[in-house]
Each structure stands twice: as structure tokens, then as C-alpha cells.
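Board notes, transcribed. Complex of a protein with pyridoxal-5'-phosphate.
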Amino acid sequence: MAKKHAAKSNGKNGNTKSRRKVPRGVAMESFLIHGSHFTDKWDFRHHIIPPISSSVTYRLDTTERGTRGFQEYASGKATRKNPVYIYDRLDEPTRGMLEDELAGVEGGDCCVAFATGMAAVSAALGVLLNAGDDLIAHKTLYGCTYNLITRWYPRLNIGSKLIDLNNTKLLQKTITPRTRVVYFETPVNPTMELIDIGAIRKVLDAVNARRKPEERIRIVVDSTFATPYCQRPLELGADLVVHSLTKNIGGFGTDMGGAVIAGAELEGQLLLYRKDFGGALAPKSAWPILVYGLPTLPLRLKRQIETAYQVARFLRSHPKVARVCYPGLEDHPQYELAKRQMRDLHGEFAPGNMIYFETVEHAPGHSENCIKVVDWIAKHAYALTLAVSLGQLRTLIENPGAMTHAAVPPEERIKGGIAPNGIRLSIGVEDPKDLIHDLEQGLAIAD
Ligand SMILES: *Cc1c(COP(=O)(O)O)cnc(C)c1O
């Protein structure tokens, strides 16, 4: 009697105490495995920051629950309103929370997240294309996307034509009965050219009106440079949006990730694709993107846009700079399109944090000044870092022709506007005057 009493006064719940004890006959090794499975320490509704979940597999209670989960999945109809969690690669709560937020901010019905941006690009195209289909892409693409389309897809008998997608007449002429996808980045990596999503929508609406639903051409937009803070392609007429979460959305350069945002009819297909091809975003990587990346996206981008504008204006006025391409500059050749297409969450002009510029050289096709300037910055600059990737707190600089886009054959690079003397800048959150100081010193050594 006295014993029972003591247990009660120790805590609000008499069970708490017994759970700290090893059940009779159970080995310590087993206790260390099963000890706290049913603990009342799990009270996620009162967490402010979601827990990092890290469970490969899930308790299923009954065979029936397991069967139901697998059947929903296999039917391609797994909606995630009331998920039966089975196995991380299928679906999982931390990644699921991130997916819900990404779908919400892009204005899409669903989002499926992948291990990297390239896994997301492969999945978006993978669910839309069959052997024998064709895709049309813009002539300038992220180097790995270019390789995916031109090196790997021929092996699957998926044809591709890379054209200037700002030429809508050419697009009309290039479409064949086998065309199923039009794919592009806007802004384009690295040239900062923009593609008019609405204009392409118009061309395809006319073509699609005469096609059976399963033969319609879809628009896939890689919106990595813009993020949903600066542009929402689904509102402008795209069917699917892909992102590298590694970049601006992740924002801190700590984790890789990718995402596809699409209409409800593709959710099941995308989930099945991820189940079978793999490449699921790890929950431990989803967590920092959910907890640090997305909440600070508007703050970071707002600051970076202000700085990018100042840096772009400085570069434009510099005698050693031949050309600057930043959609926020009034003399960007597509300034009107930029103002229509790149809007922040409140409708304000949001031209992003990426700048492309070219150094003055002695002759066309040369890059001596460009290399000199970038190498000087790599060695001596304080606020600029020579590195690939983009969208971090630090300002990053690189020479795309020699690095990120080196996989693209030289003649294709030139056609795509990636000059040997081109430099890509990803503006961070430093004070603009420190960035301008470093750039000024670097450019001073160009002849
Ligand atoms: C980086 C990047 C990708 C690929 O993303 P990863 O996360 O590196 O796989 C795709 N598209 C664009 C525009 C990118 O900048």
C-alpha cells in the first residue's frame, strides 16, 4: 500500500516509473532497443520546431494497415491526407511537412521531394516521357540537365530538340506529333535570360486543343534561380515546377535536395517514381530546409535583391565590364517581361539574386581578363568566394564556361550565350559595399 502511494506521488502517472525499469526477464540489450517505444515523452503537438524524424520503417499495428498502405501506394493513388507511413522512401513526416509548404507557396496541388535537384528534374521528366516521345528544351540549360537530355535520353529512345524558346514561331515549327514536354529554366542558368512562360502556354494551348489528353504537351519549368519568392510558374501557365532545394530555398549551403510541384493528377505517379527509382530526400536534410531555409527565404531574398541591384549597377558602369545581365536593371533586354513574370509574394518586382556579366577582352572568344579577375578574387577577396552552387549567405563567384557548364560542348555553349569571359555571381547577404570593394579591386587588374 505504502509502495503504491510513493509511486503516485512521484509523478502524475504511475506508469512513468515502471517504464524506466527493465521488465522482468528482458535482457538489457533488448531493453535498450525497445525501452521507450511507448513513452509519453512524445508530445509533438506542443513542439514549436518539428522533430527531426529519423525512422526508416514504421509500426503497422495490423497486417490490414500494412496491406492498405501498400495497396494505396501501388495504385498510384496514395494521397497523403491520411498517410499510412510504411517506409521512409515511400513517405515520411518531416519531408511531408516540407512538401506541403512548398506546394502551398508555389500554388500547386502537390509536391514530391527528392535527394537532389537533378533527381527532381529526372523525376519530372521521367513521369511525363515514354520511349518514342520527344521533348523540346531551351538551348541553354544547367550542365547536368543538358547531359541528362542529350546523353542519357537517346538510350531510352527519347528525342530532344534544343531551341531558342523565346522564338515562339520556331517552337510552333519544332513541335511534332511525338512532342510531350517543353522544358526550360527561367531565369536561365547562367545567362539570366528569361523565358516567357505565358507566351509558351499560348502556343501549347492551341496545339493541345487538338490532342487527346494523354498526348498533350506539358510545360516543365526549372525555377531554381527565382524560388517561389520571386516567381510562381504555375500561376503563369506552367504544368510542373522543379527546384534544386540545394540552392536558394535551402539557403545555407548545408544540404542537398530537390522538389517537383505539380497538379494532383501527377502526385501518385511522382510518388511511385520515387519509390522505384529511389532518390528520396533524406528527412535529416528536409529538416534544415523546413526549419531554416523556407522561413528565412523572404528575408534573405529581399536583402539579396537590394544588394544585387546595387552590384549590377556598379558592374554596368565599370569600364572593364563588357555586359551585365540582371533582370532588375532597366536596360535588361527583357525588362518588361521580368517585371511581369518576377513578382514577390506581395506582387512587388523581385528580380532575384543572380547576376551574369562579361569582362572586356582583347578579342572575341578570349577569357584572359575573366580568368585573371576571378583568380584574383579567389585569392584576395574577403567577401567573395570562388565556388560553384548558389543561393547561400556568402556571395559566390564562378566562371560557368570553365566550371558548371564545362560539360556543354563549346559550340553549344556559344550558341547558348555562355561566353568564355562570362562570370556568374550569386549574391549573399553581406553589405553591398564590401562586395563592390572586392569586385572593384579584382577588375582593376584586367587590362
Ligand atoms: C543546381 C541546379 C540544378 C541541380 O540541382 P542539384 O541539387 O545540384 O542536383 C538544377 N537546375 C538548376 C538551374 C541548378 O542551378
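Residues 1-17 have pLDDT under 50 and may be disordered. Residues 26-292 form a domain with the Aspartate Aminotransferase; domain 2 fold (CATH 3.40.640.10).
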